């Protein structure tokens, strides 16, 4: 193996290629595209490492090639400024502020970094940009150590129309909390957090809107001019001494037109195409002829003393490569990374191979700036500040369902939650007990019946729910035990075919996918019958898990049945399964009502004889006439769409075989955690790396806009969804669209159509024979149409946000940018609500956001589908949150575990005051509360108390403390003591203590109404004199007991 960094060695070879290249000063610039695309990134990266008198501009024909090159430059460790394309808008469509801010930020960096290379597309090169002198203006500079008062900075922000909010969610807002001031400049990609110590800036940092926690520390922050009018094309920035690298022939002609006196270089290189290009990458590990040809070429390179480099994303993939090719490690120079394709440089005797290409994996550029869902979930209860809204229904754990009337003050001036119950009675809940109150969520949108304070109905409903939940948990565990006790079929571990089949997957699996695949394989290799549920958004890779499970079953000599809710979806599965298994002798058939009786008989005979390996169809697969010879796996797609009778047949007929269920309906995280230990579940909430968030815009209904939006999609070869949810007027809408866009083939689909006619319409659209599908919401969301990437939703104001999320999820399943236009009547836009509505829908921009709090309504539908009608009734009776707590406790208890209860030990301490108003009159006492000065907004304080009360371990408490320190600043004494009293509560609860009393320095503990006497028969006395020291001593003493 060669010494030194492989990237440096290879780049050195490219530099020598540049140095040996003849120059033609008088000639026009030629595109670097004359060499193979696989080598372009390698060659340009080497060029960028050379000294240049000016800037290097790398011009790409389109955004996709730009992003590919950006990833290649990242692999070659060549830093560039990657300028995104200007937002494509039509008429009055609103611009995506996140994308525009990112683009402006990059343009500023271009202006301020004269020598840094720029990577851009043709549209960015020609698009207008702000004037450079305006970009260089600094309207505000903040520096750590600078003296400026928070009040002065707030006044400056208000002069520029920033609006005060308790917590920042979008641009143009600011928030003050204690010594922290947050603000979100319109041109910034992230909001800014300033922490003050008096009138001095102690810290500057960027933070995440999602989690509200710090993402990056800053020494200085500069805010430029807000006037960034677009006045000149970016090509005007090209100066004498700059170097233009054109990827495409056409771009050279554009450069000639736009650049009058730029450099003239002849760029070419003796670089040959990708080494795997002639070997049909993707099947080389399967086809012996291709493999032998590749091995011969590889041996020649090694014998001739060539440098043979291998790029693989992991050590496991490298070892797979060596095992298949039966080569020694010493033959190669290895480096880890992701390179889409390899290349050959004969003059330098260099060949670089990529396992992504050899194994046929597609590596598509990912999207920047997306936080993982795991990180988003860390924004615990405090980010759910709007969970408790005035006028909504809430559930108190002890008193039942009431109406939240908001924050009220007690006679002493303390803040309390007010809950109105049946009969007009009001319950006053101290703010430090707010964790006992949860937003009421039931199944369906019905209004719950309020409880009366003091009546027995709530206690009875809770007892009934507890008993029902216990029965349900026992039923789940009984079914699990029954599966484990009865003999199933344990598949053999993965063989060579399975390894090769997985290597042929044309994409890179997401971490969630890998975990779900491994869990499914473990289930199948176990002798007990599998019953696994896979949950995740559409297009997140559930089908690939089913494909691998099916292939494992077939190679193990078993048959597979794939059950889909509709014929269209079944046909889509047939195409996908056949495509993935085309290189293997696997017979896959479709059984549908569209077949002739003779065709159906032939297929059924094949199933009976065992000649059909995989049978795909709708509920007909469950009928008695379908006899399987050796069925080993059933895959059920969208189980919730099958009726009770079909589910009962499933349970009876396929009790002892492996069952894999796929669901695109989001399952609430709380329910998922509750069911762990009783049902095998896997969730996929990470989008594929090439998926882009849907650009969502809210627009006034305008036929010019509709025409231009449809034409924009058709121009790039795509298709369009148009949602019009009134059957009575849908034909009239079709006529209007056809007049607006005569070249478009428009088809109509709705629930009142004949079933066969609706299927024909869907076939036309799925097969690409129609341009626009004008439909009501009846059209199923499970069908994957990657070519449909624009959706227009008429009268979007009539849909709930959860419905809009699902509707919008029908586009954006390919690697191209998708657009969702929410059309509203003009008076709603003119009325000033557009900004609020846009702000609301922006919550749903992130892929996988079906798992956020904002998706709760949709999640609850999923919960109802998963748990069944009977359990849905109990959810309605006690609320979803309490139901999940009861379910988790029941399952843990039945599994022999000690259920982890909420840490709710009561504290009665004579030297601690828990209310701010009370403390002001009691000198010498220890304050333990969330002061108004530290968090002026009452809703944030409620959320903070709820977050603190949710901590069940010291680890969770420490994480919350860290979050508060980041978001609110230095802790005042009341916060320090509040954290310590909660530490005492958590330690006591873990030891089974229900009440902690400290009176006259005596520490007394109670459990079930009785005092707990320590050894010696005396209650311990605290020796410390100061209240803070006493509290610390009590914590340490309780730990030692």
Structure description:
By secondary structure, the chain is of the alpha/beta class. The protein folds into seven domains: 22-133 and 230-258, Rossmann fold (3-Layer(aba) Sandwich); 138-224, 2-Layer Sandwich (Penicillin-binding protein 1b fold), CATH 3.30.2060; 277-358, no CATH class; 388-463, Thrombin, subunit H, CATH 2.40.10; 491-684, 3-Layer(aba) Sandwich (Rossmann fold), CATH 3.40.50.300; 695-846, Rossmann fold (3-Layer(aba) Sandwich); 906-1040, Aspartate Aminotransferase, domain 1, CATH 3.90.1150.50. Helix content is 38%, strand content 19%. The strands form ten sheets. Strands 26-27-25-28-29-24-30 form a seven-stranded parallel beta sheet, with helices on both faces. Strand 10 (200-207) and strand 11 form a beta hairpin. The chain is globular.
State the main characteristics:
1041 residues, alpha/beta, Rossmann fold, Penicillin-binding protein 1b fold, 7 domains, 7-stranded parallel sheet, 6-stranded mixed sheet, 33 helices, 42 strands, 38% helix, globular
pLDDT averaged residue by residue:
78
State the end-to-end CA separation: 60 Å
The biggest beta sheet reads: 7 strands, parallel
Per CATH, the architecture of the largest domain is: 3-Layer(aba) Sandwich
Low-confidence runs of at least 5 consecutive residues = 21-31, 257-270, 278-287, 364-386, 830-859
The figure for the number of domains is 7
Strand order of the largest sheet: 26-27-25-28-29-24-30
CATH topology assignment of the largest domain:
Rossmann fold
CATH superfamily label of the largest domain: P-loop containing nucleotide triphosphate hydrolases
Q: Helical amount among residues, as a percent range? A: 25-40%
Shape: globular
